[in-house]
């Protein structure tokens, strides 16, 4: 993740910094732990965040003008494809989504030239503070590095809410620090801690040649120097992979007892599976996509991938585009950022089912069905006509009267 130093251009001091009672809110100190211990040390968290962020970043974006028409060469689209000199569009969206998923907060800055944004930058969410009037739902000031030598402040229009900074965040029901989004990892923090501890325990066990914590006792009295010598001997000659499968000899009166549970008793492997499944559920990632055994909710990999996009990736993308449009639309004469679900390869199974349903129906002509499949239309006149099943006959009043007349004639002939 790139941290952009702020440019040397001057910043106007906010009028809101003086003249009213304001409250500064700061993000939870835990977001650094979520980043380090969650994303940085837990493979399941890393895989979930990376999969969602990469999947979202690959969805092609489009731009509609104020009339609702797709415009191929639009300056807003160019900005999205090259947000800044050091990041392309995919990398920028990948990083923004990752911050959002890890910390619940993503801070973007727009740099303008002649009143039009020409760069988008990402900031780390750790050192931001938000100030507002007490009781006012609209922020008045975003501050990075408050009370630090590198402090930077950004005004917010109290009427429109417009600012050089966009704060994309998750919902946070907390009564303290609700200005900041809740980190998604907060709900899975215990699972992450347990999984990390289990992996560390397993690693330590391997380092100790697969042995466990032990207590060494003797019937004879042991002096402090002897205790120190025995302990040093155990560490040097018993512990570590290099001492595996060696013969260990103690004094005749010495006894060694384990003081921890065995791996079977801990069942840490099954515990890891359960914790990984809960972390996947927390992020909305089907376990099949990460190769995690158990809880196979979907019949196959294709179904799981469709579920990832429809239930997780696309809803997050909708949130992101909603915020970007709120932030950038007025700068580009009402243009809106959008996407087309037909451009998402993972949703092909849904499109295939829809095509099959339409091809089975009688509401389309032959040429309409050929167009649906991407074929050229036929020139025959019948290709533009609707066909119905010969057995499908409407049951209306005229047809009912005909049946009654036929029944009457049959009865008369029998008499």
Structure description:
There is one protein chain. By secondary structure, the protein is an alpha+beta fold. The protein folds into 3 domains: 15-189 and 308-343, no CATH class; 213-259; 361-414, no CATH class. 40% of the residues lie in helices and 13% in strands. The protein has helices at 30-39, 43-57, 75-81, 89-103, 189-207, 224-237, 263-266, 268-283, 301-328, 348-360, 366-373, 397-414; strands at 22-25, 62-64, 105-113, 116-123, 128-133, 141-144, 152-155, 165-169, 214-218, 254-258, 336-338. The strands form 4 sheets. The protein has a 4-stranded antiparallel sheet, with no helix packed on it. α2 packs across α4, α2 packs parallel to α8 and α2 crosses α9. It is flat. Mean pLDDT is 77; it is low at 1-22.
Layout of SSEs?
Layout: E1 22-25, H1 30-39, H2 43-57, E2 62-64, H3 75-81, H4 89-103, E3 105-113, E4 116-123, E5 128-133, E6 141-144, E7 152-155, E8 165-169, H5 189-207, E9 214-218, H6 224-237, E10 254-258, H7 263-266, H8 268-283, H9 301-328, E11 336-338, H10 348-360, H11 366-373, H12 397-414
Antiparallel strand pairs: 1-5, 2-11, 3-4, 3-8, 5-6, 6-7, 9-10
Helix pairs in contact: 2-4, 2-8, 2-9, 5-8
Brief characterization of the structure:
With 415 residues, the protein is α+β, with helices and mostly antiparallel strands. It has helices at 30-39, 43-57, 75-81, 89-103, 189-207, 224-237, 263-266, 268-283, 301-328, 348-360, 366-373, 397-414; strands at residues 22-25, 62-64, 105-113, 116-123, 128-133, 141-144, 152-155, 165-169, 214-218, 254-258, 336-338. The strands form four sheets. Strands 1-5-6-7 form a four-stranded antiparallel sheet, with no helix packed on it. Strands 4-3-8 form a three-stranded antiparallel sheet.
């Amino acid at each position: 993740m790139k941290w952009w130093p702020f440019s040397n251009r001057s910043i106007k001091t906010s009028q809101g910094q003086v003249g009213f009672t304001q409250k500064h809110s700061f993000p939870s100190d835990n977001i650094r732990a979520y980043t380090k211990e969650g994303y940085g040390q837990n493979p399941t968290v890393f895989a979930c965040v990376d999969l969602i962020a990469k999947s979202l970043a690959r969805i092609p974006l489009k731009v509609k003008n104020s009339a609702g028409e797709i415009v191929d060469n639009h300056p807003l689209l160019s900005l999205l494809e090259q947000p800044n000199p050091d990041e392309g569009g995919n990398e920028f969206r990948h990083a923004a989504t990752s911050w959002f998923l890890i910390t619940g907060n993503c801070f973007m800055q727009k740099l303008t030239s002649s009143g039009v944004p020409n760069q988008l930058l990402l900031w780390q969410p750790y050192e931001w503070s938000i100030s507002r009037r007490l009781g006012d739902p609209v922020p008045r000031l975003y501050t990075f590095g408050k009370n630090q030598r590198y402090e930077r402040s950004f005004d917010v229009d109290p009427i429109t809410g417009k600012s050089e900074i966009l704060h994309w965040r998750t919902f946070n029901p907390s009564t303290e620090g609700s200005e900041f989004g809740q980190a998604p990892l907060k709900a899975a923090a215990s699972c992450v801690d347990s999984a990390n501890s289990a992996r560390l325990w397993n690693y330590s066990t391997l380092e100790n040649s697969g042995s466990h914590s032990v207590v060494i006792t003797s019937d004879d009295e042991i002096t402090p120097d002897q205790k120190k010598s025995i302990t040093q001997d155990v560490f040097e000659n018993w512990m570590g992979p290099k001492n595996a499968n060696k013969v260990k000899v103690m004094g005749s009166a010495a006894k060694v007892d384990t003081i921890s549970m065995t791996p079977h008793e801990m069942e840490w492997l099954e515990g890891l599976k359960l914790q990984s499944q809960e972390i996947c559920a927390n992020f909305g990632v089907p376990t099949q996509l990460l190769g995690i055994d158990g809880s196979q909710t979907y019949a196959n990999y294709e179904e799981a991938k469709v579920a990832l996009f429809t239930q997780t990736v696309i809803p997050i993308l909708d949130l992101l585009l909603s915020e970007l449009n709120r932030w950038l639309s007025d700068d580009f004469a009402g243009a809106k950022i959008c996407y087309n679900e037909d451009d998402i390869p993972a949703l092909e199974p849904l499109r295939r089912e829809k095509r099959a349903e339409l091809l089975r129906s009688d509401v389309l002509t032959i040429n309409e069905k050929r167009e649906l499949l991407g074929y050229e239309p036929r020139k025959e006149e019948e290709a533009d006509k609707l066909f119905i099943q010969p057995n499908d006959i409407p049951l209306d009043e005229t047809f009912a009267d005909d049946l009654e007349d036929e029944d009457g004639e049959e009865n008369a002939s029998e008499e």
